[in-house]
Amino acid sequence: MSLPEPLAEIVDDFAAVDGQQKLQLLLEFSRELPDLPAELEQAAMEPVPECQSPLFLSVDATDRERVRLHFSAPPEAPTTRGFASILHQGLDGQSAKAILDVPADFYSALGLAEAVSPLRLRGMSAMLTRIKRHLTD
């Protein structure tokens, strides 16, 4: 699987733990989602309606060698925030090509299918799909 190094490390972190520890790790990621920069308002961001909870994203591909990603999700949506944080930590600052090369189903390697509903996992897939769409427009 072709993953940027930061995302590959996250996948390895999830592979190293089992069951409830995976959920705990996802919760830790949810707490690490950075706040939006002052100049970016949620109203200007793209909603991702496939997510179970409100999620908004912004893709700045002005510099295709260093794509900037921003996510907004409420604190009461830890699963959605966790997925957004994984994508942020794994892909923010990567090149457009590296992001486009990430397999659409990379999240299956996180091993969360037994702990998180398929509907929630599709939300993570939708986030990645929307990011990629911005990079191909």
TrEMBL record:
<dbReference type="Pfam" id="PF02657">
    <property type="entry name" value="SufE"/>
</dbReference>
<comment type="similarity">
    <text>Belongs to the SufE family.</text>
</comment>
<protein>
    <submittedName>
        <fullName>Cysteine desulfuration protein SufE</fullName>
    </submittedName>
</protein>
<dbReference type="InterPro" id="IPR003808">
    <property type="entry name" value="Fe-S_metab-assoc_dom"/>
</dbReference>
<feature type="domain" description="Fe-S metabolism associated">
    <location>
        <begin position="12"/>
        <end position="133"/>
    </location>
</feature>
